[in-house]
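Sample pair:
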Amino acid sequence: MKKICLILCALLVVSGASGARRPAAVKPAPVRVACVGNSITYGMLVEDRERNCYPAVLGRMLGAGYDVRNFGHSGATLLNKGHNPYTKTKEYAEAIAFRPDIVVIHLGINDTDPRNWPNFRDEFIPDYAALIESFREANPAAKVYICRMTPIPHRHRRFKAGTRDWHHQIQEAIERVAASQRTGLIDLEPVLKDRPELLPDAVHPNVEGARLLAEEIYRALTGDCGKLRMSPAYTDRMVLQRGVVTRIGGRANAGRLVTVTVADTVRRAKSGRLRFGQIAASDTVTAGADGWWEVRLPLEEPMLSGVLAIATEDTVALYRDVAVGEVWIAAGQSNMSWPVARAAERAEARPTDRIRLFRADPTFADERGRLDSTELARLNRLDYIRNPQGWVSGSDTAAVEEFSAVAWFFGQMLADSLGAGVSVGLIEISLGGAPAEAFVSRRILEDDPALVDVLYDWRNNEMAQDWVRGVIRGNLEGVKNPLQRHFFEPAYLYESRVAPLAAGYDAEGVIWYQGESNAHNAELHERLFPAVVKSFREAFNQNFYGRLMPFYFVQLSSLNRPSWPHFRESQRRLEEKLHGWDNVHMVVSSDLGDSTDVHPRRKKPIGERLARRCLFQRYSYPNRFKSLETAQSPTVIDGATQYYDTVFVDFSRPLATLDDKPVRGFEIEAADGKFYPATGRIEGRQVILTASSEGPLRLQGTPPRIRYGWQPFTRANLCGVAPYRMPVSTFEIRVNCSKH
């Protein structure tokens, strides 16, 4: 027995020894990632740099299977003849010796220095190609990604001295390098473009900015862009814009197939697969390297209720009770925000499910005191849509009464006119007090030699109206962060409302009622307003020849504010300049003003004037309304002609008066430069004016001027003929004195 035990023990020892000699599993070597760049890669100004610079954050995101190293060198240029070439730094030598499997290069910012780009720009592309090749020689299997540069905001000391323009040129050169060298291209500019507060010195990102860069680079390296993401406009009960092609887009994991289907019904089979009823349109697309995808579906036929399904291999987004119809954006300030419940025509709003409503919640827009820390943080995150309920039916009386009165009555007339099978979607993104510059994209502001100045010291910038600056100061009282965001800040409402909603979403057009916060400076507004129009069109991807998104705006009403006649005349000239080729149209509201209240209560006529103009211009809709041309205000043509003491003013359409009384509101400039009331009578499309005895017409020298409706609060009564009697705009013209 003892012998047997000894033998068993020996066998166990041998067995154990044999097991110990088995080769251990070989652990794969980590993927070597080299982050090549300048001080932004290095992490200059990032608190606790070694932990929070973007390469360190990227390393933690990628995990243990990766060895991510930081080879950033502050001040480095891509240009080999630049003032500090990256290829002559020790970090470059170390990066080559590292033999990385993945190389991420972010260079070019320092090449905007006037010592570099103006002199050696022609060598940028060859130098970049040589840098890429050096990493491929070190490791022929290396995957190389080059980055479009992070933004340089207007606050940079050399921004207007060349940096802005050279930055654009270098970005274009980087794109050419990526195409010619067949590298990956990571676009870091949009990551921080609308977050200037994350670039404290106008160059280097802070901790939060570095984290956002790491996340974008992580998405590029792994293709993991998160679950399917869509514009906030995508919810149940939404309205899709009908058309020959309807744009639907979003973000998914890179390379994933995305299938988009619009059908009347959907159900899930036992297998889990979706079973559609009658399909209106469907298409499949592959998400790009950055995760963005877009399809364009033929959705010409309207649909009152259906389903939109967006599916990838691991995610399905179903939007139910979806309509296909007409989508309009309502934007501007408080007169557009003014709700149905407070309008004079509240009882005339007829709730209906054929109108769907989406309203960006203003939340604290009307507050004039200090904003609390939660509100300030939300502003910095661009969290300024806040619509947890999504689209709501226009049959919801409470929702209707909270909605913009001008927009509702505009939509109500469209719904009545376009037929029972067409739904109307209204998206309200107006904000009380908002200046026009808040709706303009940062890029458009920065690139305009004049408009860029509205960005500088915007809290105290005298290009903004006094009371606007007062609201900003009150809201931000005691705030120590000099880069704190605010809803009246230039570009803010574009970045927080327009652009997010427009991402992969189509709309037919925009209705706009704004100007009260810009009426002190008509000359500046004449540059701002076209920039507003261009910004909306670029956001909604409709700023190209043949499809200029319609833009309808309301001229300011009348009010006892001295600058308003000049501003109304400026708006008239803007339409005269833009409407022919740029699809911009104006309606007049001066007859509906209130001498003491900036918020006239009569909103239905304004909404319906917009709708009639839209029906005539956009929908070519003459059948229901006879003589729809009368939905447009008569305009002055060919100036005015003087015969002795009589002046003849010709208009584009037959004339009448709003109250069937003699014409009021005309003035003629006399020899002393003053304006005196003129007596007028209507003959068809012409008004015949006679100067008063107090101010005889000048027959020599500089031609006199004629003004109409020039009082801040005007009782001028000239209009077009029935049935619509559209009022004539405030105007000023010179008289042709060649015939007398």
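The first helix runs from residue 2 to 20.
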